[in-house]
TrEMBL record:
Keyword set includes Transferase: no
Signal peptide (UniProt feature, chain positions): 1-21
Keyword list, A-Z: Signal
Name of the molecule in the record: OmpW family protein
Pfam family, any one: OmpW
Gene source species: Flagellimonas allohymeniacidonis
Gene3D superfamilies for the chain: 2.40.160.20
Entry GO terms, CC: outer membrane
UniProt cross-references to PANTHER family, sorted A to Z: OUTER MEMBRANE PROTEIN W (PTHR36920:SF1), PTHR36920
GO biological process: transmembrane transport
Lineage of origin: Bacteria, Pseudomonadati, Bacteroidota, Flavobacteriia, Flavobacteriales
InterPro entries: OMP/PagP_B-barrel, OMPW
Length: 215
């Protein structure tokens, strides 16, 4: 856990240092950009569940997302993506049947570097970066006694485009793939007289549509 936090902090400090080192004398492009999207978070989940076998089923969520971008020049930028989503979780096909594992909130702040293909009102971009997912607000459901999810460092790929309405406002379509997982410990002492460990891959697709502004 400590190493993961140090890695993420190092990435943030690196990007902050790059921003501070930029020549601010060139003002012929907007350095800051903000977007507000509605996103659909669709997990592409799988799990390795000890002792009882089976797989994981994680629900799709629809939530708002805010992102903040800083442009080094007209093409290169970094983007910080902020959103949180609640998912229903179930263990399916286990040796004791399907098990309702309640709900959990995911907070995966994601930092990506992007390249924007300029030259017209339609501005496609590609990006890649890192995310650090925090699990909170766990409701373990009616069957098990407790569930603990480990926070995890993951990676992200991104693609999309902005469509400029004028020099300031634009529409945005965005697709991201997050590669993230967690080690979960399920305390099922009451129901199964056991504690069960699971290695869960969440790996969500995130589809977004929204509006943005350049400053």
């Amino acid at each position: 856990m400590k190493k993961l936090k140090i890695t993420l902090l190092g990435a943030l400090l690196c990007f902050t240092g790059i921003i501070n080192a930029q020549d601010t004398s060139n003002d012929d492009f907007s350095k800051w950009q903000f977007r507000l999207r509605g996103i659909v978070v669709t997990p592409d989940e799988s799990a390795d569940i000890e002792a009882i076998g089976g797989d994981a089923s994680i629900s799709t969520a629809f939530v708002p997302e805010l992102d903040i971008s800083y442009f080094f020049d007209e093409n290169w930028s970094v983007e910080l993506i902020l959103a949180t989503a609640k998912h229903d979780v179930e263990a399916v096909g286990t040796a004791v049947g399907d098990i309702d594992l309640g709900e959990v909130w995911l907070l995966p702040p994601t930092l990506t570097g992007q390249y924007h293909f300029t030259g017209g009102d339609l501005v496609p971009y590609l990006g890649a970066g890192v995310n650090f997912t925090i699990f909170y607000g766990v409701d373990e459901g009616p069957v098990v006694d407790d569930i603990d999810y480990d926070s995890a460092l993951g990676f992200a790929l991104q693609g999309g485009f902005d469509y400029m309405l004028n020099d300031k406002w634009f529409l945005n379509v965005d697709v991201k793939k997050l590669f993230l997982g967690t080690d979960a410990t399920v305390d099922a002492t009451t129901a199964l007289s056991a504690t069960v460990d699971a290695d869960v891959d969440i790996n969500p697709w995130i589809f977004g549509f929204g509006v943005g502004v350049k400053l």
